[in-house]
Design a protein that fits this description.
Distance between the termini of chain A: 103 Å
Largest sheet of chain A: 5 strands, antiparallel
Structural class of chain B: alpha/beta
Number of strands of chain B: 5
CATH architecture of the largest domain in chain A: 2-Layer Sandwich
Structural class of chain A: alpha+beta
Shape of chain A: rod-shaped
Oligomer: heterodimer
CATH topology of chain B: Rossmann fold
CATH class of the largest domain in chain A: Alpha Beta
CATH superfamily of the largest domain in chain A: Histidine kinase-like ATPase, C-terminal domain
Helix content of chain A: 40-55%
Shape of chain B: globular
Number of helices of chain A: 14
Strand order of the largest sheet of chain B: 2-1-3-4-5
Strand content of chain B: 15-25%
Number of strands of chain A: 18
Number of domains of chain A: 3
CATH architecture of chain B: 3-Layer(aba) Sandwich
Radius of gyration of chain A: 46 Å
CATH superfamily of chain B: Response regulator
Chain lengths: 471, 121
């Protein structure tokens, strides 16, 4: 009658058959006394081929591995257990495998020689993944190092993961010094900028990249620099790691050129206007010694020279790239004219009505001078009682634009009157109309007031350029 | 008749300004620099208004600084600024709150309107 298996024996065998690791038991002569199901499955063998076999003879001696011999014959005899002994081998049946072996001597009561329990874990895939990851990292680092712009990868807490050579060179640090440090601690804390920290806090929660964020400061070893930062989150597949990639573009030279250009433009503008002031001054001197009828003409000339300078200011304020916005331009002309011609308590109004049309900047000055001339004439001559309205309107009529300056004043005087200096203003109107290629449109009289209407072809957005050459 | 101090580092434009204002019936004093202007402001010479260029002798906002000092020396002194540069927000931020601005080039009429408008305000 076979001895009943004890509770301990039943539990142990159940455990051995359940664990995923391959287990084999060797006797003191290194013969396999037993193995578990996981061993048979992993190494594609069977109980019949395994039990009683010298381990080195197993499977056409595929277990005759020098490292295993070292473990079993040199290490185990002197130690009760060994953990994590790595064995790499090419098995004929399953190919190259990396195995982690744990070995332990086990003794049964009354047994003096004992047995060796080997737990074998196949870590081939994990090792391959680690090697692949390392190769990918090295490839990535190589790519990063070829990028000319300084580049840094940071964790969500702003500690540095890696940086390109350009970044390390620029900030005079090494990868060893930079990795693991907070971004804000680099280079004497010059990156610890509240605005940058705020953007970093916004990027992570909102999942939006930073585009063209400018930062200007004094950087140790670099001096005052301006950088353009681009940042975006990067995700690593297979885990939940979220990192951020920052690329820096040194735009100091470009910024300096822009500032120099702006300074030069301001200086040129300043000189031009001072020169125009001198011209006005010369006319003012001249007018002091002239007979009264000429004085008005000189005064009118001063007004026109002043108008030219103001128009250039208005053009720069209202231009949008290659065009000038007519509505804004006219509004500013009206405002400037009101400021110079009318007092705060004046009963005369200058109103504007214009759609969102655009005109060529090269024509904006004569266009503005024409409006200035027409509206000034109206203000000076249409309202002897000092009360009335001048309306400047611009509309698009087909491909042309139509300028109308109308007042509700006393109307035009008799044409047979001799031209006075004031009336020469009408000559200037004709000059500007001709200059712009326009034509005065006859307007039927309607009660009091004067309406001047002029149509201009091709005053709108510039014509398209020449046709490209045929291929 | 009022006394207007004109501060302008360009001699000819300064002279033009004086003539224009004198033709309006006012008296003028003139200075070509901040130092010259301060000397006049510190004197007992009666003054009714200050008309100053903003860009003075390479000081981009010299006229703005002068106006602030002038106001501390002569409380309530009316001020008109002028400049050939386009008016910027930076310039505006340096202006006295009740001062006027007359851009260059200004005509005699515009200068007259500004001076008399400021004095009447």
């Amino acid at each position: 009658m076979p001895a009943e298996r004890g509770v301990t024996d039943i539990a142990a065998s159940d455990i051995v058959e359940t664990v995923p690791s391959a287990l084999i038991v060797l006797d003191r002569n290194l013969n396999i006394t037993s193995a578990n199901r996981a061993f048979y499955q992993t190494f594609r063998t069977s109980r019949a081929e395994t039990e009683g076999c010298l381990i080195y003879d197993l499977g056409n001696r595929q277990w005759d591995i020098p490292a295993l011999r070292t473990l079993l014959e040199s290490v185990i005899p002197h130690r009760a257990s060994v953990e994590g002994f790595e064995v790499e081998h090419v098995f004929p049946t399953i190919g190259r495998r990396t195995m982690l072996v744990n070995a332990r001597k086990i003794f049964r009561p009354g047994d003096h020689d004992g047995y060796i329990l080997l737990a074998i874990e196949d870590v081939s895939e994990e090792r391959a993944a680690r090697a692949e990851s390392k190769r990918n990292w090295q490839l990535t680092q190589s790519i990063v190092d070829t990028i000319r712009d300084p580049l840094v990868v940071i964790e969500h807490d702003m500690t540095i993961v890696t940086a390109s050579k350009a970044f390390l060179t620029m900030f005079g640090t090494t990868l060893a010094e930079a990795v693991g440090r907070k971004f804000s601690e680099l280079g004497q804390h010059q990156w610890d900028v509240p605005a940058l920290r705020h953007l970093m806090d916004k990027v992570l929660p909102e999942n939006k990249p930073i585009e063209s964020f400018e930062i200007e400061d004094n950087f140790p070893g670099l001096g005052r620099r301006v950088f353009n930062l681009n940042a975006r989150k990067i995700f690593q597949s297979g885990n939940q790691v979220t990192r951020m990639l920052l690329v820096f573009e040194d735009i100091t030279d470009r910024k300096q050129r822009e500032r120099d250009a702006e300074t030069l433009t301001n200086e040129v503008s300043h000189r031009i206007k001072n020169n125009l002031q001198i011209i006005i001054g010369l006319i003012a001197f001249e007018s002091r010694s002239q007979a009264k009828p000429s004085v008005e003409g000189y005064r009118a000339m001063q007004g026109r020279i002043g108008a030219i300078a103001q128009l250039y200011d208005l053009i720069s304020q209202t231009s949008r790239g290659d065009t000038v916005a007519v509505d804004d331009y006219l509004t500013e002309i009206a405002r400037t004219m009101a400021a110079s011609l009318l007092g705060e308590k004046s009963g005369i109004r200058i109103d504007v009505k214009a759609g969102p049309l655009k005109i060529d900047p090269d024509r904006a000055v004569p266009f503005g001078l024409l409006i200035n001339e027409l509206a000034t004439n109206a203000v000076k001559h249409a309202f002897p009682r000092g009360k009335g309205r001048v309306l400047i309107s611009v509309d698009q009529v087909g491909p042309e634009i139509e300028l109308t300056v109308a007042d509700d004043g006393v109307g035009m005087m008799d044409k047979t009157q001799a031209k006075t200096p004031e009336k020469r203003g009408a000559d200037y109107v004709a000059i500007f109309v001709r200059q712009l290629g326009g034509a005065i449109v006859p307007v039927a009289a309607h009660g009091t007031g004067t309406t001047i209407r002029i149509r201009f072809p091709s005053l709108l957005v510039p014509q398209a350029g020449p046709e490209p050459l045929a291929a | 008749m009022s006394v207007i101090l004109i501060v302008e580092d360009d001699a000819f434009i300064r002279q033009i300004g004086e003539v224009m204002i004198q033709d309006c019936g006012h008296q003028t004093l003139s200075a070509g620099s901040v130092c010259e202007a301060l000397a006049i402001l510190r004197s007992s010479q009666p003054l009714d208004a200050l008309f100053t260029d903003i860009y003075l002798e390479s000081a981009m906002h010299g006229g703005c600084d002068l106006a602030i000092q002038a106001r501390s020396l002569r409380p309530g002194l009316p001020v008109i600024y002028t400049s050939g540069n386009t008016l910027t927000e930076k310039m505006k931020s340096l202006f006295l709150g009740d001062a006027w601005f007359l851009p260059k080039p200004y005509t005699q009429t515009q200068l007259k309107n500004s001076v008399e408008g400021l004095l009447a305000a």
